[in-house]
């Protein structure tokens, strides 16, 4: 079984309610705090963290 790696900590269903749809993709405008630039990001790629719901294997657990 493969491990999930691209997991949203804010569900895409919520993000899509605030998105603009273009070519069957949904986009959200976001402001970068450091550079003050406004970015347009896909709801597929925003609010994502790698392995957020993946639990580590216990020590000594057989592979």
Identify the notable features of this structure and list them briefly.
single chain, 63 residues, 3-stranded antiparallel beta sheet, 1 helix, 5 strands, 33% strand, elongated
Q: Quick gist of this model?
A:
The chain has 63 residues and is mainly beta. The protein has one helix spanning 12-15, and strands spanning 6-8, 20-22, 25-31, 38-42, 48-50. It contains one helix and five strands.
Notes on the protein architecture:
It is a single chain. The protein has 63 residues and is mainly β. The chain is built from one helix and five strands, in the order E-H-E-E-E-E. A three-stranded antiparallel sheet has the order 2-3-4, with no helix packed on it. The radius of gyration is 16 Å and the shape is elongated.
Instruction: Briefly note the structural class of the backbone.
Output: mainly beta
Q: What gyration radius follows from the Cα positions, in whole Å?
A: 16 Å
Beta-strand share of residues? 25-35%
Low-confidence stretches: none
H/E element order: EHEEEE
Q: Could you give the count of β-strands?
A: 5
Largest sheet: 3 strands, antiparallel
N-to-C span: 12 Å
Mean pLDDT equals: 84
Report helical residue fraction. under 10%
Q: What's the number of helices?
A: 1
Shape: elongated
Strand arrangement within the widest β-sheet reads 2-3-4
List the helices and strands and how they pair.
Layout: E1 6-8, H1 12-15, E2 20-22, E3 25-31, E4 38-42, E5 48-50
Antiparallel strand pairs: 1-5, 2-3, 3-4
């Amino acid at each position: 079984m493969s491990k999930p790696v691209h997991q949203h900590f804010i569900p895409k269903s919520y993000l899509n309610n605030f998105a603009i749809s273009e070519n069957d993709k949904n986009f959200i405008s976001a402001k970068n705090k450091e550079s003050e630039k406004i970015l347009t990001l896909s709801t597929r790629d925003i609010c994502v963290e790698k392995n957020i719901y993946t639990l580590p294997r216990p020590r000594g657990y057989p592979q």
